[in-house]
Amino acid sequence: MLVALCRFDLRIPGVASLKEKRHVVKTLTASLRQKFNVAVAEVDHQDLWQRATIGVSSVAGEGYHLKRVMHEVERHIDRWGEVEIIDVDLSLHGLED
Predict the structure, then answer these.
(1) Distance CA 18, CA 34 (A)
(2) In three state form, how does the secondary structure of 25-74 look?
(3) For the chain, what is the domain count?
(4) Lowest mean pLDDT among 30-34, 43-47, 52-56
(5) What is the domain range of residue 29?
(6) CATH code (residue 79)
(7) Which tens digit of pLDDT belongs to each residue from 46-65?
């Protein structure tokens, strides 16, 4: 069993308040959950208006499948018009028996 963890550091240039930012982040994370069946959470920059870091995780039996899912998640975020990806960090973790 493998676990993929992916951190997306995002810029949200079109917002002028934390309320607007929360709306953008909640809409994006809900979309990721629905489309890719992954776990998603905002993990950093909660107090900044135009920055957000979200963590995405998934579990599968094969690394190829996890990499493909995370690549599709990244493409989905990149196409999301309200955010810009600043940095992406992907790591795969295997469980030792």
Answers:
(1) 24
(2) HHHHHHHHHHHHCCEEEEEECCCCCCEEEEEEEEEECCHHHHHHHHHHHH
(3) 1
(4) 43-47
(5) 2-94
(6) 3.30.70.1120
(7) 888 899 999 999 998 888 89
